[in-house]
Amino acid sequence: MNYPNPIISTNNHRLTSGFGNRPNPTGSGTEMHNGADFTDRDRLERIQDVGILAVADGTVAEVINGALVGWTVAVSHGGGILSRYQHMKSGSIRVKAGDSVTKGKTIGTMGTTGRSTAVHLHLGIQEGWTSGLNGRWVDPLPYLTGAKSIGTPAQHQTPQTPISGAAAATPFQKGADTAFGVGDKVRVSGVAVGAWGTTYTGGTFRVWHPVYDVIQVDGDRVVIGIGGSVTAAVNAGVLVKT
């Protein structure tokens, strides 16, 4: 899947493990997965280096090599938001603490250092960060899709201006008949399967499925997807419950 804010050089992301509780790899119980794991959809990391990109402008807070996380770069983006890129290839890191980075800058290469069974990228996002590992871990996907904005404190984010013109969505009025909740099944109104829909910020995405899951709701911005994998953030006015 391509994201508006890509984190791998191919921008052909395959989500292999999402944020939240998952089976413990040791074989008993569950564990909290505090980020999201990605490979290239065509598994190019098996045969070549795949670059890791900064998801937004920021300053490198630290570069570490931990027993569990492997080679890791942490980037502070302001507003209490920090991104962490883990399991990077040894010797591939191109930045150091204190460096300024821009969105899309290659900071290293996907690897399998630390507690890792295969080459992949673990991306973690912390909100309310000030130093170290404080702050709270949150799902990175809304930041990759543009449903959340990096650089603005999450608790103070204001909805983006809905698109205008011929493609504008119907303004969303929250109410008993129109409110959406996480887990609802919805379809994109007026768009045939295989045609292009319009994202919340005015971009486009291909509508490959007749029915989507609601993954996140933030005012009139609704993140939809399939099986926990984000497809797009759209204006609620283009969605119809099924």
Overview of this protein structure:
With 242 residues, the chain is mainly beta. The chain has two domains: 144 residues, Distorted Sandwich (Glucose Permease (Domain IIA)); 77 residues, SH3 type barrels. Helices cover 2% and strands 38% of the residues. The protein has one helix and 19 strands. Strands 1, 4, 6, 7, 8, 9, 11 and 12 form an eight-stranded antiparallel beta sheet that branches. Strand 6 and strand 7 form a beta hairpin. The longest helix is centred in the middle third of the chain and has 5 residues. The radius of gyration is 18 Å and the shape is globular. The two termini are 25 Å apart.
Based on Cα principal axes, name the global outline. Answer: globular
Residue stretches low in confidence (pLDDT < 50, at least 5 long) are 152-177
Mean pLDDT: 82
Percent helix range: under 10%
Which structural category fits the helices and strands? mainly beta
SSE succession: EEEEEEEEEEEEHEEEEEEE
Corresponding CATH architecture of the largest domain: Distorted Sandwich
Count of DSSP H/I helices: 1
Secondary structure blueprint with pairings:
Elements lengths: L12 E5 L2 E4 L6 E4 L2 E5 L10 E3 L4 E9 L3 E7 L5 E7 L11 E2 L4 E4 L11 E7 L8 E3 L2 H5 L39 E4 L7 E3 L5 E3 L5 E7 L2 E6 L2 E7 L3 E3 L1
Antiparallel strand pairs: 1-4, 2-3, 4-11, 5-10, 6-7, 6-9, 7-8, 8-11, 11-12, 13-16, 13-19, 14-15, 16-17, 17-18
